[in-house]
Design a protein that fits this description.
single chain; alpha/beta; four-stranded mixed beta sheet; about 60% helix; about 5% strand; globular
Length: about 300
Amino acid sequence: MNTQLKFDYSAAEIVIDYFSNPATNKINEIVNHPGYRLVYEHSKQFSSNPLDENMLALSLKGESTSFNFSNIRERLKQLKKTVSYLKGNEQKMREEFAPLSLLYLPEDYEPDVTVYFLIGGYNGIALNSQIAMNIDWEQFRNDRQEILLYLPHELFHIGFAHYHPLPDISKVRYEEDLKKTVMRITMDEGLATLVPYQKRIALNALADYDYSVLSDSQVLLKKVTQFMGIIKMLSKDSGSPVTGQLLGEVLGQCSGDRLFYIVGCYMGLKIEQESGRGELIELVKHSPAEFFDVFKSMNKGCDSEGKC
């Protein structure tokens, strides 16, 4: 399996330079940087309030908070150290962290990915063999190692999209469509969350909310019950049209309550523990529905709310 991985720090460096020397005219250079263009493209496809060039320009001028540059000058020294930390750990990212994503992907997958480290926007996004990671995200500020641990998560998304095209929310018409979309995202986000799980255990890096829930059986059961209730509801009348309200409620719960990540990871863990990682890798080649069917077959003694 050949891996081509390129790291680009220029977006973060230009933003640091701009806020260090505001008289320099770098706004156009920043706004047109391919890392930020990736953010716009991803946001346009998946956000109800997408980020765009104008929002970034206004944020750089202090006239918008869209890209979260508030009080950034107080963090410039810290951000410079983060860039230096990443450059100093590039070999570790290539050899120790990035390969974690390949442990859950088929052997025929050969990644060729560019990773842009930037400042502002989302914590991390993946699209079209490119990744953008916001080094100024609070969790990354508090612990730079989290950037290394999130890298394989995003890399897995690129690999998963190689086998399963990204969902188009605009084409969701019926509850069956929404159910399929939810299942696809759950498998993708769940396995991406699973990818660095053992590494996090080894590094004692389980403070992240998703992983803390996975080790709390009572909270985990509530999340599983909530999620299975959503799937059950969408299965009742699969031919019913999807309203904007229903779409917002379902995706809002699954994303906002971290159900995609936590329940999906729990499902993956269960399958891996009972059938081995090879079963998960094989399932990546097949439909998310099969992933759900395999999990369901392992939980025949559970009731409709997921209690076993």
